[in-house]
Every structure is written in structure tokens, then in C-alpha cells.
Design goal:
It is a single chain. This protein has 4 helices and no strands. The protein is mostly helical and 69 residues long. Helix 1 runs antiparallel to helix 2 and helix 3 packs across helix 4. The model has no long low-confidence stretch (mean pLDDT 80).
Length: 69
Amino acid sequence: MLAPSLMALGVASLATCLSVNTKEEILKVFMAFIALLSWLLTLVFSPWEIKLLVVVMPFVWPKFRTRLK
């Protein structure tokens, strides 16, 4: 399960980088969609400990807590 999770995370990282650095709108939207889809696949393939960490982290990290208020 680690290999598919890392592959999906790599694709999501690459798509996010391309989405931020390109100037074409269609490519930005397409890369953002691919990044979101790959991130969701990463959550599907990851073990439950990582899923729990993703859910709990915004409530524990002070930087995120100020944004939630």
C-alpha cells in the first residue's frame, strides 16, 4: 500500500507545482483537478494512522487553529 500512496502523492505534488507555475488557465484548472484527485487517492491507499493524522493535524497545529476560528 505504500507504493501506490507514494505514487499518487508524487503525481499530486507535480500537478500542484505545474498548476501554480503555469500561465494558461485551462492547464491550471486541469492540473488542480489532477492534484485533488491524486490527493484523494493518496488518502484511499494510505493506512489509517495517516488518515487520522490528516484529520487531527488542523486541530492540533496552532497555525491552522487560528484559521478555523
